[in-house]
From TrEMBL:
Ligand for members of the frizzled family of seven transmembrane receptors. Belongs to the Wnt family. This is Protein Wnt. Keywords: Developmental protein, Disulfide bond, Extracellular matrix, Glycoprotein, Lipoprotein, Membrane, Secreted, Signal, Transmembrane, Transmembrane helix, Wnt signaling pathway. The lineage of its organism: Eukaryota, Metazoa, Spiralia, Lophotrochozoa, Mollusca. Pfam families: wnt. CDD domains: Wnt_Wnt2_like. Its main location: secreted. It is found in: Secreted, Extracellular space, Extracellular matrix.
Length: 368
């Protein structure tokens, strides 16, 4: 009996360890790996945190995996751009398979919502673009954009050129990324699925119709048009606005099917474009790597701004340090015929403000 009991304990411990390992890693890690390694296939079995279906897709679609990794990295860079003036600045941890810190995977904050959506958008975007560029053998331009169409004003045109096949990119991203959540359908999985979808939708929404005129001396008697992705920056800005207006949700206790409902009945129901979250965010003031928070000590802040980059907010009331720095800019640029622009180097002296850390502050207080 004792032996059996011990065996159960050991099995339980092993299961818990495997679960912890899975909880603490994610497919985002592909974005942190060198591309030649991603393309080599051998990696599929070694990236921690991939679920069965992801491993299979990884082995079958090796060329697409390289694109997927690039797309995820594009998501990371866009996240860092959008949050450059926030306390939480979307920094990644070196060689950590959770990429942004373990807490982001466990606690359903707005920041988590943003990271899921921008990563999913990055993959949908880059796969779609790769299709149009002919970089993937399984897809190309959108085959359904044929014959006649009408623009928003109701003016007719002929589909032509290469419309980006955003459907393919979305499907690929959904199949790969959502596979992880479908393994274990709990409340957090529902949140992630919603935000993954919001990311894919953002890519689809940020497209535009591009047209070319044909006819005698550009009379535009006939137009051919195609639907094209726009700059990824637009997708990032769109999702950042959704982050600002993210909607807090909770599990619906009364329903037989698991679903999410708004936490505050006075708030609007989320649409497929909105980001949803469960938990209030920590303040991200101090260093906590589990939290993916480098803390704001040493961060540059703006003494005259009342926004998140202002010294009051950025430094969490700890105060800041000011020093002057010489910065070199291009100035007095002149156009020289032909075709050169020659500039002078101007040196400006600027005041640079940086946040004090907890300890610096204490030392400062107690040092005298
Ligand atoms: C975020 O802030 C930390 C510390 O304040 C800094 O070391 C890091 O480089 C920043 N990350 C990015 C991506 O800007
Ligand atoms: C600081 O903030 C002010 C007010 O928002 C803005 O006008 C100024 O350009 C900012 N300075 C820098 C260096 O970003
Ligand atoms: C300005 O600075 C750059 C790099 O610091 C240098 O390469 C360039 O020659 C400088 N231009 C002038 C006009 O001094």
């Amino acid at each position: 009996m004792g032996n059996l009991c011990l065996k159960n304990v050991v099995v339980t411990i092993v299961i818990v360890l495997i679960h912890l390992q899975l909880v603490a890693s994610t497919w985002w890690f592909i974005s942190q790996l060198p591309l030649h390694a991603v393309g080599a296939g051998v990696l599929c079995d070694n990236v921690p945190g991939l679920v069965g279906r992801q491993r299979r897709m990884c082995r079958i679609h090796q060329e697409a995996m390289v694109i997927l990794g690039q797309g995820a990295l594009q998501g990371v860079h866009e996240c860092q751009h959008q949050f450059r003036q926030h306390r939480w600045n979307c920094s990644t941890l070196d060689r950590d398979t959770s990429v942004f810190g373990k807490v982001l995977l466990k606690v359903g904050t707005r920041e988590a919502a943003f990271v899921y959506s921008i990563s999913s958008a990055g993959v949908a975007y880059s796969i779609t673009r790769a299709c149009s560029l002919g970089h993937l053998s399984t897809c190309a331009c959108d085959p359904n954009r044929k014959g006649r169409g009408r623009d928003k004003q109701g003016n007719p045109f002929q589909w032509g050129g290469c419309s980006d096949d955003v459907n393919y990119g979305q499907k690929f991203a959904k199949m790969f990324i959502d596979a992880k959540e479908k393994q274990h359908m709990d409340a957090r999985a529902l949140m992630n699925l919603h935000n993954n979808k919001a990311g894919r939708q953002a890519v689809q929404k940020q497209r535009k119709l591009e047209c070319k005129c044909h006819g005698i001396s550009g009379s535009c008697a006939m137009r051919t048009c195609w639907r094209a992705l726009r700059d990824f920056r637009r997708v990032g800005t769109f999702l950042k606005n959704r982050y600002n207006g993210a909607i807090q949700v909770m599990m619906n206790q009364n329903s037989a099917d698991a679903d999410l409902v708004v936490a505050n009945r006075n708030h609007k129901k989320p649409t497929k474009y909105d980001l949803v979250y469960f938990d209030a965010s920590p303040d991200y003031c101090n260093e906590d790597l589990e939290l993916g928070s480098p803390g704001t000590a040493g961060r540059e802040c703006n003494a005259s701004s009342i926004d998140t980059d202002g010294c009051d907010i950025m430094c969490c009331g700890r105060g800041y340090h000011t020093h002057t720095e010489k910065r070199v800019d291009k100035c007095e640029c002149k156009f020289h015929w032909c075709c050169d622009v020659v500039c002078k180097n101007c040196t400006r002296t600027v005041d640079v403000h940086t946040c004090l850390g907890e300890r610096t502050q204490r030392k400062y207080k107690w040092g005298h």
